Amino acid sequence: MKARRIQISEDRVDLTPMIDIVFLLLVYFMVTTSIIKEEADLGVTLPSSMAAPPDTPLPEQHYIDILVDGTTLLNGMPSDNPGNPDLPNLRRTLQGLKLSSDRAGLKTIVIIQPDPETYQQSVVNVLNVLKAVGIRSISFGEG
Question: What is the pLDDT of residues 75-108, one digit of tens each?
């Protein structure tokens, strides 16, 4: 009697379902990821740490304080109602200050001092007003 050889089959792992799942996950994350960057560049120039030449005129500095409730103070004086995100009084005042600084040949610098508990939207509203007015030299301080 002849002995039969028992053939042992090799175990194979089928990778097709795993590849299908990986592609499905890839498609899912590509579809759900937002590609658009909103307000990524405000176009403001922050002051650098380089020393200015000695003959450079001193810049004209203005302080904008943002209180907890969103009220904006320009150089210590209240300027706008926190309910209006356009800040029309602040915009009008800053346009006048920028115009007078430009006529005098001075650089206008605005230092924003938000309260630590204020909403970030209030700071963004002030930055939008500064961009609309054309003030590019902005710095942040402690409120």
Answer: 888 887 777 888 888 899 889 888 888 888 888 8
Give the pairing of strands 72-74 and 60-66: antiparallel
In a domain, 95, yes or no: yes
Could you list the residue range(s) of the whole structural domain that residue 108 is in? 60-140
Sheet strand arrangement including 72-74: 77-80, 72-74, 60-66, 108-114, 137-140
**Counted domains in the chain:** 1
What's the number of CA atoms in the CB half-sphere (13 Å) around residue 97? 22
DSSP 3-state assignment of 2?
Answer: coil
In a domain, 73, yes or no: yes
**Closest to 57 (Cα-Cα) out of 96, 97, 104:** 104
Q: Is residue 86 a part of any domain in this protein?
A: yes
Task: Judge if pTM exceeds 0.85.
Answer: no
Structure tokens at 95: 């346009």
